[in-house]
Amino acid sequence: MEISTNGLAEILKNAKDINSFLQENEAYITNPTLQEYLTELLLLKGLKRQDVIKNAQLDSNYINQLFSGIKTKPGRNQTLSLAFGFGLNNEETARLLKIAKVGALYPKNKRDAVIIHSLEKGNSITQTNETLNSLEIETLTNYRK
Fold this sequence. Notes:
- The protein is mainly alpha-helical and about 140 residues long.
- Helices cover about 60% and strands about 0% of the residues.
- It contains 9 helices and no strands.
- It has helices at about 5-15, 20-25, 35-45, 50-55, 60-70, 75-85, 90-100, 110-120, 125-135.
- The protein is globular.
């Protein structure tokens, strides 16, 4: 049985001691590397790396270095582009951003609000960049119309 993050947080909040919590919930506590998580996403989404590269509109060498673990710290824009490349929703993107150790999306920030909305609507990175560009906000990739 899988426990949601919120469910695990509630169990942690009510735990008598941390050692018991960690021992009892060991199967649910994960700390994947970015490389491991990207590989997991490929399997979960049924995608090929080339699909992600095309949909993310990022350089194939750069993405291949992330998948191989040569590069381990992408920038925030690159991580968000990967989220679009995988077709992630907002919740899935939040996890990717956390694993990549880049800032979370913040709905009170205008740019982030556009990105959150685009993720939830299933928009492509091109559609998202068009919206950002029309609002005169920095795009995720070098998009110019």
